[in-house]
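Need tokens for this chain, all 284 residues.
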Amino acid sequence: MRRLRRTLTLLLALALAAGAIYAVTTVLQRSETLVTERCTAVVGTATFELATDQAANAALITSVAVRRNLPPRAATIALATAMQESSLRNIDYGDQAGPDSRGLFQQRPSQGWGTEAQVMDPVYSSNAFYNGLVKVPNYQSMEITEAAQTVQRSAFPRAYAQHEAMGRAFASSLTGQSSAALDCTLRAADSAGNPDNVVSALTKTFGAVPAKSQGRTVRVDSGRYSTGPAAWALAHWTVANAKSLSVTQVELDGHTWNRDSHKGWQESGASAGSVTITVSAPRS
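Here are the structure tokens for all 284 residues:
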């Protein structure tokens, strides 16, 4: 009898320990602190990853190309260039070869790219790069590293090639050529979103976007950016900027991206011909 009691006590202790381990593991798995924030772009079977700030800069560079109606190839070249020059970060310093280099493309005021303040403006620097690129004859048929070097005049002309695949993947999604192809894994929003901020950001980025806000939702259901590749360009741009804009959900053409699910784009009942953006609610 004593041995039976001892066995039962041991089994009960083991059961309690197992339950405690399960509970702790479940809590840890759901903990926001364990979420590694990142953005990925998928082309075919290949997946490429950027940090969230890099992805936001990639989205900005690409949106300038979309607004200018430049081909996706131009965005690919620009992204590969900026990745090599600054790791897609708007840095305010240069290197030994170009001490006055600044910004996403490390453009040098001493070489006529503009003032220091101008080249530190990501929109200005992106436009400056594209202004140089479109002057290159047949840049669309050139090797990416050759086209980039023709614009940049770098001391390391072959270095751009290593970022070609990444540039192509993010350009494909951010120009809307690939649908439901850009995903950002993010922690929960730490503040309430403002739909008016989303509308303002869309207008600043893409121009006259007929975006309408109601409650926590912003809809783009008419015009160039409501259907086709341009709509996916806008939707992917929004996902890439979801962290700063406190966006929790984006819907387009039968697909939904939900921030909290961490499952990427999922098939849903989202209607075609409309981009719907939802921002986070105030915390109670």
